[in-house]
Every structure is written in C-alpha cells, then in structure tokens.
C-alpha cells in the first residue's frame, strides 16, 4: 500500500469506505470515480481568503454587524419581504430592528418556506450552530447574545473555512473615519481596503467635508483639488494600509470621459495605486436606487459598455485591476478581456449573480477560458455569520464543476493527481489574491 501523504493519518483524512487510498499519494493518478471525492476533500480542507466583504475588524466596534436580528434584516431579505407582505417601505423602516426581524421571520420563514438563496442562508447559519430553524427566535437570540465577539469571529471563520477577510473601509464615513483616526487596532484576519465611492461618485455631496478637514479642494475640481485629493488618499493609505483601493461604478461608467470622476481616477487614484503597488478594484454595473424607497435594497443592475474597462487596461498597463461586473450579460466579455490583459483579475459572482444557477455558468466559462487564473468568489458578507453559508454554497457549487473539469482532462489523456487539485484550489482561493496584491511576489 503506498505510503500515505505524511501530513495526515488515515483517520484524519476521513477516507470514505472503499476509497482507493493510493490516490492520496500526491503524484498518483486519481481514478475517475474518485475525482469528485478528492475535489470535495481539498475544497473542505483548504482555508480560503474572502477578498471582498463589508465586515469589520473588532476594533471598529459598532461598524461590525453580527447576530440573528442582523442576519434576518439583511437588505436582500428586506427586498424579498416587500414581495410577500403588504407593509410599505415607509411603515417597515419605522419599525425597530427587532420588530423588522420578527416581521421578516414570520413572513419569509414561517408563513412561507425559506427556499430563496438569502432565506436559506439564514437557515444554514442557524443549523451550523445547532439552533432551531423554525418556530420562535427566542433560543437563537439568547445564543447570539451570549457570544463574545472575538471568540465568535474565530468560530465563524472556522465554520466558514476562511482564514481572513478583506474589508470595505470608507474614509468619509462619519462613524468609521474617527475610529481610524483614534488608532483602531488592526487584526491579521481583517485586511483594509480604501473605498472611493464618496469621492468618485458623490463629489458634490462630499467636497465640503474634505475642505472642512483642511484640504484646499473645489466643487468644480479646479485649483489645487487634484493635488489635495492625492494628499487625502495618501494620508488615508498611510493610516489604513489598504491591500487595494475599491470603487463601485454605475452601468453608465465611461472612460475616457471629460468628468470629475475620470480626473480623480486618472490623476489621483491610479497614480497612488502604482506608487503603493496595490490594485484598484472596479465593480461596475450598478443602477443606484432604482427604487429609492427600499434604501440599501433599492439598487438594480445594468449592462455596461466594457470598452471603458478595455481603455483603462490599455492606458494604465502598470496598474492592476480587480474587476467584478454586476450584469450577467457582461460576464463572457469580461472573461475574454482577461485573456487579453494580464493586469485584469476577474473576481467573484457579485450580488445578484451570487446564486448557484449563475455561479455555475460564470465559473465554467472562466475555467474553460482562463484555467485557474481568476478568483471564483467573494462573499460580500455584511453580517459576520453570512460567511458560513456563502462559502458553504461556494464549495457545494464548485465541487461538481471542478470535478467535471478534471474528468475531461483525464479523458483527454492527462490523469489528475491530488497535487493538481490541491495546487489549483490554493491558486483559485488564495494565491491569485496574494500574488495580485503583491503580498507574495
Ligand atoms: O458596492 C458594493 O460593495 C456592493 O456589494 C453593495 O454593498 C451591495 O449593497 C451588496 O451588499 N451587495 O452584496
Ligand atoms: Zn460589496
């Protein structure tokens, strides 16, 4: 019997009965009927990096959302509530957090089966902690209230199979910014990102905030504005030490364009990203507040003209771009562009795309055209415990797709080994991020 991989004993590997143990030796070909099990094992035993979330390190205190009432009042579920319950958004938003959660729970989880992606996710979190997934919320509320945040985070990350998450940090958020300036302690499991939306998309509403902080900026972008915005971004980059900068852009995003957004992008953001050797993440395709009454749940999606991205990639070859697009119709184009530009890293199945039916299609297109040179998923989690179901779903969707990919490779004459699978999963869910952000060259 071939020696086991020396890192694991047979018991630790939890090898299924009747499993041909020889394929546990790294370089042995895996029999076709064992490929799926090997893929599942490697997915389950690799800790992923979650490269885009709205989670916060513990030192940012109240910015971080967690617990059952936050899970149930996630804006994805608020949108679903209004389809099942006659309550108006104005009436709903006048309720307390607990009243909102009680209404959503009754409507989407008791009166109706929780079969949507977002409702099923809450069920998966409750189940992961052994809590009732129907009936009253009493026990669940008592459980989460009993938890200590630091130990809870470690347990949640363990259950999700992630080693670290990347945050979204807004230097113009009136609640978050002061915490950074007071010296919020960093955390090795939470990586900062400098988020640029209020400058690039809402300059008219925010230029006076910069002015009040001593930056000599003008609403029309004239005078010293560009130099001063560079100084602002430099100050916050030194304070936050972001692993990348990020911005969400509308479906109408255009480049080149005679606009303040493009001036800030080309004269301030991209030069600083080059200086600091960090990527810019452009997330394109949002139609903001198509229904303003729904607030955070009110955004929609629009197909983008990717020639804007094409020109950015061409004009700024020294910059690296993480890119996630919101429209399903843009995905094949994005994958094609990634074949043309090595400074483009497609990532994730964003927001309305993070459903198994679409994730499967996107991931298969990307594997077929890019091999493992992309990042399949991020959670976009807003509430801590969401990473548990979002990453469980990713593993569940990825396993058959990866297994099929190796099946085809084997049928075409190249047997797959355990080492292949381990290497590829590590590249997809860790190494591509580390390399693209220059955390490891
Ligand atoms: O702009 C973004 O980062 C988006 O992910 C929005 O936060 C969006 O509201 C969201 O939560 N998507 O999952
Ligand atoms: Zn997001």
Descriptive account of the structure:
The protein has 441 residues and is an alpha/beta fold. The protein has two domains: 44-63 and 162-436, Metal-dependent hydrolases (TIM Barrel); 68-145, Orthogonal Bundle (uronate isomerase, domain 2, chain A). It has helices at 10-13, 35-45, 68-72, 75-84, 89-93, 97-110, 117-128, 138-145, 149-160, 176-181, 197-200, 203-212, 225-240, 260-275, 307-315, 331-340, 356-370, 386-411, 418-436, and strands spanning 48-50, 162-166, 190-191, 193-195, 244-250, 280-287, 300-301, 321-325, 344-346. Strands 4, 5, 6, 7, 8 and 9 form a six-stranded mixed sheet that branches. The protein is globular. Zinc ion binds at residues 52, 54, 380.
Features:
single chain, 441 residues, alpha/beta, TIM Barrel, uronate isomerase, domain 2, chain A, 2 domains, 6-stranded mixed beta sheet, 3-stranded parallel beta sheet, 9 strands, globular, disordered N terminus, binds D-arabinohydroxamic acid, binds zinc ion
